[in-house]
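Please check this one:

***
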Amino acid sequence: MKEHQVTYLVIVEAAESGPGVVSSLPQPVGLVTNQTLLQYRSARLGSQVARAEALMQAPLCQLHAEASLWEAHQLMSQQQAQYGVVLNDALELLGLVSQTDLLRLLDPTVLVDLVESLQQQTTDLASQLSCTQTQLNHEQAAHHQTQLTLEQAQAQFKAKIKERTAEISQINESLKKDLRKRQRVEKALRQTLETLQNTQAQLIQQERMAGLGQLVAGIAHEINNPVNFIHGNLTPASQYVHDLLGLIAQFQQQYPNPTPIIQAEMDAIELDFLTEDFPKLLDSMQVGTERIREIVKSLRNFSRLDEAEFKQVDVHEGIDSTLMILHSRLKERAGHPGIRVVKAYGELPKVDCFASQLNQVFLNLLSNAIDAVENHDQQRSLEAIQAEPGTIRITTEVTDQNWVCIRIADNGPGIPENIRAQVFDPFFTTKPVGQGTGLGLSISYQIVQDKHSGSLSCRSVPAQGAEFTIEIPVEQTAHQLACGE
């Protein structure tokens, strides 16, 4: 700078080369003043080593040579540049202009005109701004009014929603009440229907059992009279026969040589065989009438029509009477081996019960046990049946709570778990159509539980048989009797 006696030094950047480059001339990027160099040196910094770009003052504004001083001033003011470099069309550096030089060079007249022009522009802008502000105020007022309208509409909408929600809530609450009421009514109707069905089933079964009891009692009565007549006459008849045979023996001793006609008659009737067999025949008739009397007694005991409905009875008699009635199904017959009945009776006191109804329970449980054993035997070979015969075991005992426990078990196929939970339901049966009504176990359950305040339960293991357990108190209280009626 001393060599060229200049105050300012313009720093340029090497021009870019390649396609699309506008100019290949170096571009001014900064400015270094003599004063900057002096300040740098006074700070004892090595200006010999420092690069010029570290000292340049920026920003630097580029000005075209044809631009007026006022345009140059405005451009430098916009870019907040203190210095501007003047370039020609070829972007060659022509000179340097400072903001101070521009202000000093501008004509005061031009400045006044410029100021007036600026004031006019400012006035126009202020007027436009005022109009815009007025319009904005109007729009803001309209917006505010619209906002108020919207808020009012929103408030009305919210009020309507709230009112409608309250109405819907009341309607829902009313519907819930109606639904609960309907559910209660439906539940009551279902319970009533179930009660009616159970009552109907019980009445049907009771009517059947009553008819069966009357029929059994009638048959027993009709059989009992002639059997008693025969049984009562067998004793004197045996005596008469004994006397006649004794008389014949006396005749044979007194007249050892009968006439040919008498001898022929004796040979024809086989007198020796008749004398030996006739007493045996009378003894057989005696045994037969005793057997008939036992059957009649069992029938009368089962029906219990000649006794009070509620009384103290011997449970074992009821079980034995039921077994007597079912004897034909237990004994061996063609194509079907007999079913063994094992009795393990304990010492039982007489029990307060409705005897005929309790006998009905025994009949239902024993009949089902026989059905289970028969169905199981039909699926087994004769060798398997002989190795393990069909068996029904009846066990009775008194528990610590002074209750009578009666267990009826069979060695049939057992009851699956999904069926066992339904065996006491009314009209539920696993038997084919026409062979079961589904009422026996249901009514038995009601007789034991409702009539005798006891319990009837079932325990079963598949392929190992089933066991039904009856538990009833030995003595029935007045409350239990009232519930059972």
